[in-house]
Amino acid sequence: MRRYLLALLAACSLSAAAADNWTPFPYDQRAYDYSGDKLRQAWPQLTRGFGTDYPFPDADWVVHMAAQYPQAVEMTVTGNTGFTGKPEEAAAYAAKLQEVWRLVFRGDFAKAKQQGLALGVGGQVPAMFAQVVYAMFLAPDQEEKHRLLEEVIDYTDKAGELVQADSAAQFGRVYAKARLGEELPVPVVLKRGYTSQIPEELDALLSKQPRQPFALALYGGYEAGVIRKVGKLVGKMTYGVSAEQMEQYFSRSFKAADNLPIGHYEYANALLYVYGDDEQKKALEHLRRAAAITPINAMEALEVAHAKQLLTQLEHQLAQN
């Protein structure tokens, strides 16, 4: 057991060092300062994509999780993080964990990964969240993007009960699989089992959090992506997806949180995947809504920029017709 833990921690250290060469966040970070009490005050909005009750990582949360997940404590102690599971150490550990989240929201993704992994499995959640965001928007090429997403899946699978019980970590893993599933060749996707794992993991996540906006939008996008690849008939008969279900997932996501840029541009993509030219105007409307949102963290700034890029492309396409 100890040999496995040390091997895992060594891998974490190597990955964290490599992350120092990541492309920096390209926009002004001053609007995303959540120093001091600002983080707790803004937490419900910053984490609204994970649902209405994603817990703030304070000392009480650390004590509770340490008592509930002894395996995570063992892994954290073995990793020489400075936390041994004692309640009197919880405040100091929580302060470090909160700082990692500040780095994520500010767009210091490489530092967030490095400092998060240094905290053991508790810090792995924001560390891997930072890696997912970086992979999707700032990775220099598709090969590196895929490598980073695959690493997120591997980290999460190996991290044990604490990370696998965390809704943000669960979402990050299935999100990585869904994005890979869109871009990898069909035989590879089938061999890895993503076509069954993605809906199973989303169902498991939504059974505990039926109003999680990120998961609902991802489910709608997943169904649209399957329809795009295999068509409506095969999609329904073989994979159980449909345009009606896709619409329902996005509707539920918007009811839960209507101010997430990713929800609107994912829906715009889904509309074009499923209906093509027939829903171009509706897709345009949702891209404009995404582009008009004022971002409150670095991830949303990248999402809004992406939405603006998609909007420009669609407007140009419509002008050509």
List keywords for this structure.
single chain, 321 residues, mainly alpha, 18 helices, globular, Tetratricopeptide repeat protein, signal
**Roughly what fraction of the amino acids lie in strands?**
under 5%
**Terminal Cα span:** 63 Å
Helix content: over 70%
State the total count of DSSP E strands: 0
Oligomeric status: single chain
Unreliable sequence segments? 1-19
User: What is the residue-averaged pLDDT?
Assistant: 90
Tell me the Rg in angstroms.
20 Å
Topology diagram in text:
Blueprint: H1 2-18, H2 38-46, H3 59-68, H4 70-78, H5 90-106, H6 109-117, H7 121-137, H8 142-158, H9 161-165, H10 167-183, H11 186-192, H12 194-208, H13 213-230, H14 232-239, H15 243-256, H16 261-275, H17 280-292, H18 298-320
Helix pairs in contact: 1-6, 3-5, 5-6, 5-7, 6-7, 7-8, 7-10, 8-10, 10-12, 10-13, 12-13, 13-14, 13-15, 13-16, 15-16, 16-17, 16-18, 17-18
What's a concise summary of this model?
Residues 1-18 form the signal peptide. The chain is mainly α and 321 residues long. It is 75% helix and 0% strand.
Descriptive overview:
It is a single chain. The protein is an all-alpha fold. Helix 5 packs antiparallel against helix 6 (109-117), helix 10 (167-183) runs antiparallel to helix 12 (194-208) and helix 16 (261-275) packs antiparallel against helix 17. It has a domain at 1-142. Helix content is 75%, strand content 0%. Mean pLDDT is 90; it is low at 1-19. The protein contains 18 helices and no strands.
